[in-house]
Amino acid sequence: MKIDNHPRSIPHSGVEQADMVIELMVEGITRFISLWHESDVDYLGPNRSGRPTDAAILPAFNEPTFVISGAQAWVQSLIRSKGINLIKETSEGTFRISGRSAPHNLYVDTFVLRETADARDYADNPPDGPMWPFGPMPAGADRAASVNIDFSNNEVIWDWDQAQGLWLRTAYGEESMYRNEDGTEGRIGVPVLVALYVEQYTASPGSGQSGTNLPSARTTGSGQAYVFADGKVVSGTWERETEEEWFTLSDENGEVISVPPGRSWVSLVPANRGLTITE
């Protein structure tokens, strides 16, 4: 599910229950791809439109179904060309909520959307094997109390909370909250963070296609990588030869970095901006 992250879209709903969230740059701010493998939620949003980077990330998930509010025609064509099934806002399982103005009020129900995908005979095979090699953080990993990520002058801060065993998110100068359908709220936090430095570039419509250019990220090749968990950090590099593969993480000695199990948040960090760590 593509999730809005405009200041008018917060607090979010349901993202704290996703198996994984991928945060990536769009036009001056970020949006999220929330992934639902073992989990579901009937009140998730706001849902927003697709971007070219989505087409580069999602092929690793084995012909997944991707829920978006829409996208430029050339972007939708690009996404579909990668074997990704699309569900858009007029489909059963999407709805508008009161109290917010469009486009920040489109929500979805993943239970119903699974039925919608089945009715369309969309493939529902899981990825081939685990996305990461799972394992604990090394005993000798460096301490990390806080992570500050620069998304093109938009600052996202993650603070380690030992009592909860979570990295707690701050964005737009405020604690990042989620709001349930009944109005109750809580802080967005995850036990595992993965930060991958990626090169930003501008994607353009193909020959004969109309539309506007859009900011995008290169997700194949290699770059700097960090894994954060248990108040610790391990640094190294990521490699990804094709879009059908997931990211392979290696430490400075060339050994594979294991990622602790649990809900994770993957940040595609602009390489020209980067992050800072407070011990």
Descriptive report:
This protein is 9% helix and 39% strand. It has 279 residues and is mainly beta. Strands 1, 2, 3, 8, 16, 17, 18, 19, 20 and 21 form a 10-stranded mixed beta sheet that branches. Strands 9, 10, 11, 12, 15 and 22 form a 6-stranded antiparallel beta sheet that branches. A two-stranded parallel ribbon has the order 4-5. A hairpin with a 7-residue loop joins strand 19 and strand 20. It is globular and about 50 Å long. The two termini are 34 Å apart. The mean pLDDT is 96.
Question: Descriptors for this entry?
Answer:
single chain; 279 residues; mainly beta; ten-stranded mixed β-sheet; six-stranded antiparallel β-sheet; 3 helices; 22 strands
Please provide a brief summary of the model.
The chain has 279 residues and is mainly beta. The chain has three helices and 22 strands. It is globular and about 50 Å long.
Please give the share of residues in helix. Answer: under 10%
Quaternary structure type: single chain
Q: What are the low-pLDDT stretches, counting only 5+ consecutive residues below 50? A: none
The Rg value, from CA coordinates, equals 18 Å
Mean of pLDDT: 96
Count of DSSP strands: 22
Total of helices? 3
Percentage beta strand? 35-45%
Largest sheet: 10 strands, mixed
- Overall geometry comes to globular
Order of helices and strands: EEEHEHEEEHEEEEEEEEEEEEEEE
N-to-C terminal Cα separation, in Å? 34 Å
Global structural class: mainly beta
